[in-house]
Amino acid sequence: MVHASRQTRILVLNDMERLERTLFRLEQGYELQFRLGPTLQGKQVRVHTNYPTEGERFDRNKFRPLDWIDTAPNGREDDSDKFCKLELRVAGSYQYYFGTGDKDKAGSGYIVVDPVLRVGADNHILPLDCITIQTYLAKCLGPLDQWTHRLRVAKEAGYNMIHFTPLQKLGQSRSCYSLADQLELNPDFSPEGKHCSWMDVGNLVDKLKKDWNMVCITDVVYNHTAANSKWIRLHPECGYNLVNSPHLKPAWVLDRALWHLSCQVAEGEYEDRGVPALIHTEQHINALRGVLLEEVYPTLKLWEFFQVKVEKALDLFRKMLQAGGDTVRSSPPRHEGAPLLKVIQDPHYRRFGNTVDITSALEMFTPHSNSPSDMQECCNRFKKTLEELNAERHREMNYHAEKAISCIVGTIVYERTAEHGPKLGAVTMEDPLVTRYFTFPFDEMTFDQEMHLIGQADQACHFLAHNGWVMGDDPLRNFAEPGSHVYLRRELICWGDSVKLRYGDKPEDCPYLWAHMKKYTEITARHFAGVRLDNCHSTPLHVAEYMLEQARAVRPDLYVVAELFTGSEELDNVFVTRLAITSLVREAMSAGDSHEEGRLVYRFGGEPVGSFVQPSLRPLVPSVAHAMFLDVTHDNQCPIQIRSVFDSLPSSAIVSMACCATGSTRGYDELVPHQISVVSEERMYPCWNPEAKPCSPGEVSLQTGIIAAKRALNKLHQELAVNSFTQVYVDQVDEDIVAVTRHCPSSHQSVVAVCRTAFKDPKTHTYRDSVPPMFIPGKIEEVVLEARMVERNVDPYAKDEKNINGLPQYTVEITEHLQLKDSNMVKRADVTSQGCSEFVQEIVFERLTPGSVIVFRVSLDPRSQELVGTLRRHLIQFSPHYRAGSLADNSVPAILSTPLETIMSKLSLADMNMLLYRCNAEEQEDGGGCYDIPSWQPLKYGGLQGVISVMADVRPKNDLGHPFCDNLRQGDWLIDFMANRLVAKGGALGEVGQWLQAMFGLLRHIPRYLVPCYFDAIVLGAYTTALDHVFKNMTSFVQNGSTLVKQLALGSVQMCGVGRHPALPPLSPHLKDVPYRLSDITGKEEQCCVSLAAGLPHFSSGIFRCWGRDTFIALRGLMLVTGRHLEARNIILAFAGTLRYGLIPNLLGRGSGARYNCRDAVWWWLQCVQDYCTLVPHGVDILMCPVSRMYVTNVSQPQPAGQWEQPLYDVIQEAMQRHMQGIHFREAKAGPEIDRNMADEGFNVEAGVDDDTGFVFGGNAFNCGTWMDKMGESEKARNKGVPATPRDGSAVEIVGLCKSTLRWLVELHKSGLFPYTTVTIRREDRNLSVPYADWEHKIQENFEKMFYVSHDPLDPDEKHPQLVHKRGIYKDSYGASSPWCDYQLRPNFTIAMVVAPELFTVERAWEALDVAEKKLLGPLGMKTLDPDDMVYCGVYDNNLDNDNSALAKGFNYHQGPEWLWPVGYFLRAKLCFAKKMGQETYDKTVYLVKNVLSRHYVHLERSSWKGLPELTNENGQYCPFSCESQAWSIATVLEVLHDL
Q1: Alpha helices (H) in 226-294, listed in sequence order
Q2: Rounded to two decimals, what is the model's pTM?
Q3: From CA 555, how far away is CA 550, in angstroms rounded?
Q4: Is 635 a catalytic residue?
Q5: What are 152-204's pLDDT values in tens digits?
């Protein structure tokens, strides 16, 4: 039974679930299945996606529908296995949405498919976690013909990916990211006398890929262009200027004022006011703040851009008021006041250009008369309101001004006075007070002259807003668009060399810009394997989406990298999902200490060591974005400046051990002691020369910096990724030492890197001399490398003028691939053991100085390797995953040479009950109990399901810290329990036990950290094999059924078993095919028939296991529908043998201890005999089977089996005859011995048939003879001995069951299969024969007359019209001693509808079902009483004992709580009558049914009992007093599926 290992993920769709901010990552080759969640099952759901069909080009806006597939041949019954799928073969971001009914979009989300990178002449795959990247500033590489000499440093240092900053022509500032022309290659790259093209770059990139196995990526910059770009001068519409973005005019005015202020400060004009050109004290800053607040802002009057010209508006208002006359005053007066009058912003943003809505003003301001004084008074009120509105705008602008001054001053403090700032020195034209926010491509002029340009469109269009970034801003908002005040409030950290680009919403909004950038993108994608999205968080999402779509059209497997600064993983996901970002840049420099650095390693990739093997078909769970974890990025501060030079090596080693892409920036490995500026750096990178000396200018070698160590670490990183070392463990050994373990789950080799960080300089900080020892489980094969930072005696660092150089006085001392005994860092390595199976080496260190790294390669000890290999070999039968690392071993126990499937093929379904289930009470009856996890809880079952239920929660989360896993690691108690429990049974079960024993025997001697994952693999394999065997032994309905059908069918195995003590009375010795065994108590042969437990855990063992009513309500679903015909026959006949007084026992008590206190069990039994005859092939043969009668007379003692026998048809006849005759008796041993709560009158049992109606009736006010059998128990509430629901008279379901039986018996007789046509009774000393046909006809004639509550208040058949409170329903009973009980709305009438639908008028039945649906249907079950009823209470609490008689001691057991088994009959009734109502109604009903069933499916999935409960509290809330799994709950739901 080897399962395919193809990876499939399931995405469950739920109504109104928007998952656009959830990241779902998948790999190419995966299959994605969309399945319906509970809220959608039964609905017509349409799933659309823009994932293209094979061979089709991707179009983001083109969606196609997906077809539904159902794997179950009987897929009509429910939607649990219905799915539509995508075969994922193309990288990118894809959207899906789904709709139902008239809703086009009921939910949506994105999936991201990772690209596949290839390198080398053979085009082999480079896994994403294998990547080691190094960043180069392209401008520091020199002419193209020199690049290989400089790039060779990356190759020799072991990197396999190079990231180039943009290769385009740079702008005036020479910043790497300020591009003058996106389409032109930087001319600096052309050697003298030669012109290089993009083709030359492409050839070089291709050479690096094929010859060096290196992938090349570069930046794309979509957000801005260089301020001196020629094309932006020709196409100013591509930027934000004062014509297309007039809302920026006030900010531009402020910007120009600040420029002129800066010029005046530079020239010393403000020195006398305390602001010199060289600003360096707090007094200077405060003086400058005063100048801004008191001189600059007041003179600019920026508020005027947002105000109304009062006189102009007033004149217009006055004219219209005078012109309007009476017409104006005829409109109703409105509340006056400013809030209702809105200022309309002038779209051109002219001073005092704003207006108000005069029409609204005329409605608001109405004069009292036409007199001049009243008209003037009205105008005055209008004017006052305008002035108030202007004042409000003035206050708003003052608020913006305060913020702007704060930002201006903050910038000046950082740039000129702060210790950590650049300290720019004096204010000059080149270094102004603040960076300009707008370009000014004209000659210098006065401020007043500049202000005239603002209205000249041909000039104003060239005042372009610069780009930058805003601290803490919403990255999804464009800060240059209207509504943002970033430029006005001076919140932008501005890049004065770059112009922000204005794309608009679509290409038509700025055709030149979109076309230009599209071409730029295509050039980049043509020559590079990937791109880094520069300034990604500020790039408009729709622009990046469009451009990357163009890039992927050129290169489908485009690798996309970005660095996001959103501060929110959820916001990060928006970018990652929409843009299909492959890797997000993460930086070790963000860690403040070694502990945080280690935590980042754990967070950014890999599973915990010892993780569980996940199934290949499993739910799609949200992902964390794939990380590119760098020791430092190229645009951040140098670590040497922040930490110490000694930390370069250990931090780099920690990063290299991460299970994700890793890397660095050129200069880090060479120990360059400063940030290599993307703006100002113009020197060249050194070239590779293996012979280079430490101080050789322009050259580096393995002796330079930490290059030798980085080469070893990069190679190790790649080796770990290629060889699937996917598990990670990070150990904080002490405050400075981090140990990172990478583990391979198939070979169980580990690599352990012990890194002693040096965040502080060892020369100035005192580190501890002693280092704690480490305990490494397994055998250390070798020291992969040991390295430390050392100083050497060379000339000190001097910054070279032409080449970027590092600190020559520091290097790394490294030794690779040595034996432990030869290590200079390990003082002693002792082998110790922890327990019987732990082989551990204790490592005592010496010379593990700050800045040191040692890496061990660790294997399992030889014995453990052998055992794990053998274990994996025997697990291949369950999954090919275990083939890797498996070993042949002929010395294992013989039992393992037989596949488990073969061993299990000998098991019966009764054996499966023992193997899979049995709750604690059942286990205790056998002398044991379920396994108890210390400090947690006992398992739910003694069998495999007990473990599987726990592992189902633990496995997906890899929750290795769970008490269950802890117990497995600490000892072998659980594995001994599981195997010994089965071995003790002997036979076929004993063989399974031996197989487990042998497999678990291999577990005992492997490292304990591996025990949980292999234990899970063994148990899961055994469990799935067992389930396969179960289903093979059931009907085709189950075998071909959905997952829900199969899960419910397992309830048959769960509930049907054989205990130590036989639960059923003995069958006739003359009956064939009865199972026997040797009793371990008496030593004699005894029958061992399967019995059916009523519910777990409360009704599973002893005398409370078997109940007549529960058994026969559940028997059809659990035994007949599943194909357990022989066992069903035996149960039917065993109960038949106990017939007494014409009744079947309520509580069986093996027959000899039976209680005959229920009126309905016999009718459920008769219904089951009918179902057996109907559903089972040759089922009518049961009628001839011998029944060993236990009671010769009503008062005789129990007889031994075979003493008195009858064919089953005679027993049936007796039951019918007794009822027609009338049943009257007092229970044997009446009193507290059999029922401590019942009143004396309650022990009197009565049943009979009404001569007029044919209805079976019975009971009295002191007992409860139907399934609603709660007897009051509280003395405090005085309800003791009072039945909560007597349901005496004719209970509706019993009448229906009787009618069903009569119909069947009549048909049987016609077929010659039943010898009786009548019942004969004594009436007034004479025999009276009643034909079955007449009896049936009488019920048919009277049922609706007596049970239907019509809408006619004058209905002559209604005896108690004053008690009617709902019409269009069916009564719960007829003729109750308390007549109002008849009229209570309960779900019992639906049972009669299913078994005897002919009793009901279709329209009336449908209406009654509609009322039941609205009033009684809950999430899982049916309310047992109408919530409108005065005694309704939906919460059952059996422990409550107060003075409330309606609730005390659970008196409301059937007065509202939602029972599950009636929902089966309700749904079956709905389906039955829906068919009669027409196809449209039937289709709607199927939706309802599937929707309800989906909730049962969810409960089954989540339940550790793997069953459906007895009941829930109101609205589906959990009830702690309910059985967790109830036989009839499972059975009736399964019957619904069978009907479907």
Answers
A1: 230-234, 249-266, 282-291
A2: 0.90
A3: 9
A4: yes
A5: 999 999 999 999 999 999 999 999 999 999 999 999 999 999 999 999 999 99
